[in-house]
């Protein structure tokens, strides 16, 4: 195993340790070609998600309504509208909430 000297987190692969260690430094080797040097990332996975802003790629599809999303977390959030876990909704804009206090705040 490989250990991070900054925080002690352990990794089975050296490449995973190297990617993790960029969190502790200012190294951001993944530059967005669409944004230029203004936008760079320490993790390739974060760069990939960001790059979908420019490419329009939306690979995560809802099995219920077939709406597509740039990343899995957006799909999971959306799925709650189908699962009934967010039963309260705004009649003006359609946003859904898990409880009445969130709806009232909105």
Question: What does this 3D model show about the protein?
Answer:
The protein is an alpha+beta fold. It folds into two domains: 2-55, Classic Zinc Finger (Double Stranded RNA Binding Domain, 2-Layer Sandwich), CATH 3.30.160; 60-105, Classic Zinc Finger (Double Stranded RNA Binding Domain). Helix content is 36%, strand content 20%. It has helices at 14-21, 44-55, 72-83, 100-105, and strands at 2-3, 10-11, 30-32, 36-41, 60-61, 68-69, 88-89, 96-97. The strands form four sheets. A two-stranded antiparallel sheet has the order 1-2. It has a two-stranded antiparallel sheet with strand order 3-4. It is elongated, with a radius of gyration of 19 Å. It starts with a strand and ends with a helix. InterPro entries: Znf_C2H2_sf (IPR036236), Znf_C2H2_type (IPR013087). Belongs to the krueppel C2H2-type zinc-finger protein family. Pfam families: zf-C2H2 (PF00096). This is ZSCA2 protein. It comes from Pandion haliaetus.
Mean pLDDT: 87
How are the strands ordered across the major sheet?
Answer: 1-2
Gyration radius, in Å: 19 Å
Strand elements, count? 8
Counted up, domains total 2
Q: What gap, in angstroms, lies between the N and C termini?
A: 47 Å
What top-tier CATH class of the largest domain fits best? Alpha Beta
Pfam families: zf-C2H2
Keywords: DNA-binding, Metal-binding, Nucleus, Repeat, Transcription, Transcription regulation, Zinc, Zinc-finger
Subcellular location: Nucleus
Domain C2H2-type: 2-29, 30-59, 60-87, 88-106
């Amino acid at each position: 195993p490989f250990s991070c000297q900054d925080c002690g987190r352990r990794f089975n692969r050296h490449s995973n340790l190297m990617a993790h260690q960029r969190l502790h430094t200012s190294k951001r080797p993944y530059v967005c070609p669409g944004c230029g040097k203004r936008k760079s990332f320490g993790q390739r996975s974060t760069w990939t998600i960001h790059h979908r802003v420019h490419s329009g790629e939306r690979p995560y599809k809802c099995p219920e309504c077939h709406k597509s999303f740039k990343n899995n977390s957006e799909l999971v959030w959306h799925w709650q509208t189908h699962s009934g876990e967010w039963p309260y909704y705004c009649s003006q804009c359609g946003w859904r909430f898990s409880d009445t206090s969130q709806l009232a705040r909105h």
